[in-house]
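can u pls check wat happens w/ magnesium ion
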Amino acid sequence: MREIQGRTRLEVSRERGLTPLVGREAELLRLLEAYQRILGGQPRIVLLEGDAGVGKSRLLYEFLRRLEGTEVLELEASCLSHTQSTPYHPVLQVFRRYLDLAEGADPEEVRVKILDRLRALAIDGEEPPILLGHFLGASASPEFLARLSAAQLKERTFAVLRTMLLRASDATPSSSSSRTCTGSTPPPRTG
Ligand SMILES: Nc1ncnc2c1ncn2[C@@H]1O[C@H](COP(=O)(O)OP(=O)(O)O)[C@@H](O)[C@H]1O
Ligand SMILES: [Mg+2]
């Protein structure tokens, strides 16, 4: 016996072994066409809707599987009823995954991973790592916080998050797909 590690129903069934895919050729084709347009420089947002269990997550999984081997970074977040009380939960999830940080990672690890990522994205300055750290659980010093109003803190933090995502998708063509709250953008080019 072992614990099943999946976060979502689809991840759980993936661990158990998926049923063979039936149909969905037309839907997959539409997603791949949207992706081709993105490669041509046209941004696209895809809204995938349907009743629970109809196969939204599976379709997204099949689509992303077909992009394997390309430089696509999948950033995924879910809006679930039990996460409603955490402010910015989906945004936090996206950035934690982008930085490869587990929930509750220790502040030192948070700081190190932030610095690495900001360097890779060529985002300079003293403030961005502090703001991002504060957002992701490595609290800024009281002196730093005393210099900013709550509104400024929020505004500047979101400016950093925005810049990061823009830099990341500038580096390669970008795509985004959405399930409950799911996005994908290719990673920054490295090396
Ligand atoms: N086209 C399909 N062929 C085979 N199995 C499918 C197909 N679509 C969905 N499934 C299976 O049905 C289950 C529910 O699908 P899921 O994608 O999780 O639904 P949703 O995200 O819409 O709630 C999963 O086990 C999934 O693998
Ligand atoms: Mg689903």
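The CA atoms of residues 129 and 174 lie 24 Å apart.
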